[in-house]
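Worked example

This section walks through a single chain of length 229. The input is the sequence exactly as stored; nothing has been trimmed or padded.
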Amino acid sequence: MQTKAFSELFSLFNTSSPETLEWLLSVAVEHEYPAGRAVLMEDAWGNAVYFIISGWIKVRRLYGDNAVTLAILGKGDFFGEMAILDESPRSTDVVALCPVKLLSISAQRFVQTLFKDPQLHHRMLQLMVRRLRMTNLRFQLRHQPPAVKLANTLVNLAESYGKLTKQGTEILNIPYKDLAEVTDISVDNTSKIMEKLESKGWIKVELGTQTLLLINLKQLTNLAGQISS
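Given that input, the structure is written out below as C-alpha cells.
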C-alpha cells in the first residue's frame, strides 16, 4: 500500500509526516481472516495495533462461555491501541464478521512512532476522545425507545464506515444478535424494528451480498434525534 492511500484510508494518519507513514508501512504485517475467525484472542491484547483495510469486525466481552458484542468496527478504523499502554488482563476478543484484511504494527514499534511524531500522538488522542464521547452517547441513550437507539446505531455505522451509492449508503448486514447487543436492546425488538424500517422503505437487505442498504438516511437520522429528556 502506498503512503498516500494509507493516510487517506486511516484518518489517524492524515496529519502524519511521509517519513512516519513510510516507516510504519515498512514494519506492518498484513493479515487476512475469513468470516467467523477470531482475529485477536483475549490473551493477545497489547501485542500490536491493528488497522482494518477491508471488512468488518466485532469486539466481544467474554463472560465464561458467553460473549456479548461491545463494538462493531469497519474499514478505516483500528483497534488495540489502548491495550499497548495498559498491561492489565483482557477479557475481550475480536472476531471477523466477514472476510477481513488487516495490517498490524507491533506495540513496541507503534509506541516508538508516537514518541517520534507528535502530530500522530495528538491525532490518536483526538480519536480516543471521540470514542469516549460515543460511549457517553450510548449511556445517554439507555432509557430511550428501542427504535431511537437502533436508529442511532445504524446512523453511526453509516457515518463511520458506510459506502455511498446511488441507491443509498451500504453497510454490512450485521447479525441481529450483534446489532442488538451493541444497541443494548433485545434481539426480538431488533428484528421487529428492522422489519418495520424495511416496510417503510428506509432500509433494504441485499440478500446474498451481506449488505444492508440504508435508503433513507435522512429519516433514520431524524428518528435517531428523537431523544426525550
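What to look for: The CA atoms of residues 131 and 219 lie 25 Å apart.
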